[in-house]
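Researcher: Sequence recovery benchmark, item below. Answer with residues only.
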């Protein structure tokens, strides 16, 4: 989490709060993570398996970010990220990740572009 916050684009504001799905993280034992410019407050949503993390900034903007599983291949990760950012894609993140894992690696631009 600290690496994400420390490399978050400054033009979007300082990352100060994150709401995450516990199954997506090995462990985040604290409620605050020290970062370069202070702390990021953390909250887990119990029973949540959305594969999305909500990031709130100092500019009062909330970003919904897909959490790509670490066991994904590079191709699967690229495909998942491309699908998640394709205009008009309305399926849940869990459905998207299931679709990606059920298919052989393909060129993501051929499927979602």
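Model:
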């Amino acid at each position: 989490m600290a690496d994400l916050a420390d490399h978050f684009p400054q033009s979007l504001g300082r990352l100060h709060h994150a709401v995450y799905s516990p199954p997506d993280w090995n462990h985040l034992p604290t409620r605050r993570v020290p970062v370069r410019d202070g702390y990021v407050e953390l909250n887990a949503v119990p029973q949540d398996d959305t594969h999305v993390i909500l990031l709130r900034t100092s500019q009062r903007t909330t970003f919904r970010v897909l959490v790509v599983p670490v066991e994904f291949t590079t191709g699967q990760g690229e495909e998942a990220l491309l699908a998640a950012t394709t205009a008009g894609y309305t399926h849940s993140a869990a459905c998207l990740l299931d679709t990606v894992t059920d298919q052989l690696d393909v060129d993501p631009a051929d499927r979602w572009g």
